[in-house]
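Journal club side-thread
Mid-discussion, someone asked how the predicted structure for our own chain would compare to the paper's figures. Pasting it here so we can look after the session.
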Amino acid sequence: MKHRLTLLVCASIIISFQFSNLNSQELLQGYFRNPMDHEIGLSATFAELRSGHFHAGLDMRTGGVTGKAVYAAADGYVAKVSISPWGGGKILYIKHPNGYTTVYMHLNSYAGAIGRAVLKEQYAQRSYSITKLFGPNELPVKKGQLVALSGNTGSSGGPHLHFEVRRGGMADLHTHATIFNPLHCGLPYKDNIKPTIRGVRVYPEDSEPFAVPANGTVTVSSPFYLGIYATDAAEGSTAKNGVDRIDVLLDGTLFFQYTTEAVPVDSSRMVNALVDYPHLARTREAYLLTRGLPGAEGPWIPIRMGDGIFRLKAGSTHHIGIKVYDVMGNCAERTIKVVTSQTGQTGQTSQTSPTSHPVKYNQPFNLQQSIFSIQLKPYTLYADDRLDCSDSGATVKINPTVNEIPPHVAYTLGIKGSLPGIPQQKTVVVRVTRKAGTVKHTACKTTYADGWHTAQVRDWGEFTLAADTTAPTVRPVNFSESKPFKSSAIRLKVGDNLSGIETYHCYLNGSWILAEYDGKTATLVIDASGKLQSGVNKLRVEVTDGVGNVTDLTWRLTK
């Protein structure tokens, strides 16, 4: 990585990629072992550009099955366990003497003393979802010790192990931590296949963007910026993984560089400002943009010459070189010949209307109308913009008019009013999505006070009030009162029409029993091995949704 640091001497580079501890990765060579016992094959690489976040680790393939052995990557101790039906599912954090923490996600189960400690805590809290911190002497582990079995829990799209290397952070090992690319820390990995540059787009400031043709020659008015879509493949890995580094050179001089050595946890959502977000939302193709936005800066943001916008003399010819590297140094290259025409009207003009309001990205914004209100914190936007805020009846529309990028942090939306015959506590703010003639309502966590329904929302769009007076649904999957129960696990399907499942409790013969909730399949699973008595057993399930509607059902299971 020393060759990267030599590029930082250019005085005109205004954004530097500097971590005082990046060089410490060189000291980690050989410190961490492969957390699995087979050769590393990846279904996702570190810092891949995703909608709403950087992919913060390595997704290690497990052959499409769960239950593969997961080992501690180095000596240390279990510092934290977190379990949720969503996100990383069952997660294990191991803190190491060198100050780093390794993280293992989507686990199926925890091994040995770790599993026993987790189960004890779940019963103590009477909850499947838990977060538990441990001290240095409670659950020590040795490098290569079996700590878990791989799984498919949480929001995983298929069986795999998500593995991270972190440093820093608060006591919860999450906030303010920096995540490093494990492949830069010496994990063994084979990759002899160079990346693929799948597309390059030109974004003139005075016209619509367009794709660079196959012959690589474009005529464009200046100023403009570029978008690059590139992917990587490797032996045993999937074909469209993320790349490690992209260099853009103007007439042989570095103009832009994107690297994936480290990503701060707190800034992951900023990926939306680094890519062509509207295009990504439509096509899932992540075009990394050379241009920068003032609200999307930090010590990890790409190196740029100025703001990353090409300002070239009219009537001139230039060559833009693009080099894309994977973590093993394999390189794909493309050269674009740029002929600049007479500069047209500089800058895009946005439509203004009586309902649009100017917003400074680094200042708070508050708007109070008769039936709605919004409050934005500083740096909710990535650049100055205008918000078009309008209402029609109880429907509110909020959209930026310049940059079609989701807000960086949640903002507060209030809607005043009530629904006829509906209690206020059963009324929620919902986001309305219209697509192909269908209308979808997505509930936001809502509070009510003094006539206002208030929610923290992380999207622009259309919002309104909706009623949730329907209790959750609960139905058996693999048992019936009319037949003897012969399975080792009790399965039930649960669902809710709007506000979502908030809590659930299961009781077997009057005692609380742990039930695992799989959010992907909306299934409750109760391990019944050795827990059913001979004869008739009483199973009671109580499920509550986000506004307090309750379903409480009882079945009799005969063993």
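Post-session note: The radius of gyration is 27 Å.
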